[in-house]
Specification:
This protein has 241 residues and is an alpha/beta fold. It has a single domain (5-234), classed as 3-Layer(aba) Sandwich (Carbamate kinase). The protein is 37% helix and 19% strand. The strands form 2 sheets. Strands 4-3-5-2-1-6-10-11-9 form a 9-stranded mixed β-sheet, sandwiched between helices. α1 (25-40) links the parallel β1 (5-10) and β2. The longest helix is centred in the N-terminal third of the chain and has 25 residues, at 67-91. The two termini are 31 Å apart.
Length: 241
C-alpha cells in the first residue's frame, strides 16, 4: 500500500449519476463500496465532497444573489452530501464521523483537528463538510486545508476523467494525458487542476495531488496501492549526476 492516509476529494456533481441534480443512490453506493475496500486494507480515509449537485454559491452570485449568502448555502449543500455518504457507508458497516466547519451539533461533530486525527487512527472514515466555514473559499481549498491539517500523504481528486490532459479531453480529441507532472509545469502550462488557492497550498506544503477517474470501480484501490492510474502532480524531478 503506497498511501497510509488519504484525503479523497469528490465533486458534488459526481453524486448526480446520470441525473441533472440531486443525489443518485446507486452512484453513492458504488463510491461507498470502493471506500470500504481501501478501509479494509488499512488505509485511513478522510473525505471532502462539494455541493454543486445541490447548490453553487458562485453561480447564485452571478445571478444577483449576495455572494456571502450564496456561499453559506453551498456549504450547507456539502453537509447534505456528507450525510448521504455517511449513511451509505454505515449501511455497509463502515464506521464514520461527519465533521462540520459550521456548528450544527445535532447532526455533525465540530471540526477539531486532534479529534479528526484520532478518528482516522481508529480506522473511522472522516467526512469533512461545510467547507472551511468561510465564504469565498471553494471545497478544493477546504480539502487541501484539511489534508494538510491531518497530515494526509496525498490528495486524491476523484473526477470523471482519468487524469490531467494537455487540453479538455471532452472538447479536444487530440488531447494527450500526463502520467506525472510537476507543480511548476502546471503553472507554466496554465492547466486547470483545482482552484489556484488550493493548488498553491498543496505546492507550498509539499502535498502531492493525484487526479483520477473515480467512476471506474476499483480505481481508488489501484491508486492507494500505487498502480499507474490517473495523473500524479508532484515536485521537481531529482536528477542524478
Amino acid at each position: 500500500m503506497k498511501y497510509k492516509r488519504i484525503l479523497l476529494k469528490l465533486s458534488g456533481e459526481a453524486l448526480m449519476g446520470d441525473g441533472e441534480y440531486g443525489i443518485a443512490p446507486e452512484k453513492i453506493a458504488e463510491y461507498a463500496k470502493d471506500i470500504q475496500t481501501v478501509v479494509n486494507m488499512g488505509c485511513q480515509v478522510a473525505i471532502v465532497i462539494g455541493g454543486g449537485n445541490i447548490f453553487r454559491g458562485v453561480q447564485a452570485a452571478n445571478s444577483g444573489m449576495d455572494r456571502v449568502q450564496g456561499d453559506y448555502m453551498g456549504m450547507l449543500a456539502t453537509v447534505i452530501n456528507g450525510l448521504a455518504l455517511q449513511s451509505s457507508l454505515e449501511n455497509i458497516d463502515v464506521k464514520t464521523r461527519l465533521m462540520s466547519a459550521i456548528k450544527m451539533d445535532e447532526i455533525a461533530e465540530p471540526f477539531i483537528r486532534r479529534r479528526a486525527v484520532r478518528h482516522l487512527e481508529k480506522g473511522r472514515v472522516v467526512i469533512f463538510s461545510a467547507g472551511t466555514g468561510n465564504p469565498y473559499f471553494t471545497t478544493d481549498t477546504a480539502a487541501t486545508l484539511r489534508a494538510i491539517e491531518v497530515e494526509a500523504d496525498v490528495i486524491l481528486k476523484g473526477t470523471r476523467v482519468d487524469g490531467i490532459y494537455t487540453a479538455d479531453p471532452e472538447k479536444d480529441t487530440s488531447a494527450t494525458k500526463y502520467d506525472t507532472i510537476t507543480f511548476d509545469e502546471v503553472y507554466k502550462k496554465g492547466l486547470n487542476v483545482m482552484d489556484m488557492t488550493a493548488f498553491t497550498l498543496c505546492n507550498e506544503n509539499k502535498l502531492p495531488i493525484m487526479v483520477f477517474n473515480m467512476n471506474t470501480p476499483g480505481n481508488l484501490c489501484n491508486v492507494v496501492n500505487g498502480k499507474e492510474v490517473g495523473t500524479l502532480v508532484n515536485f521537481k524531478k531529482k536528477y542524478i549526476i
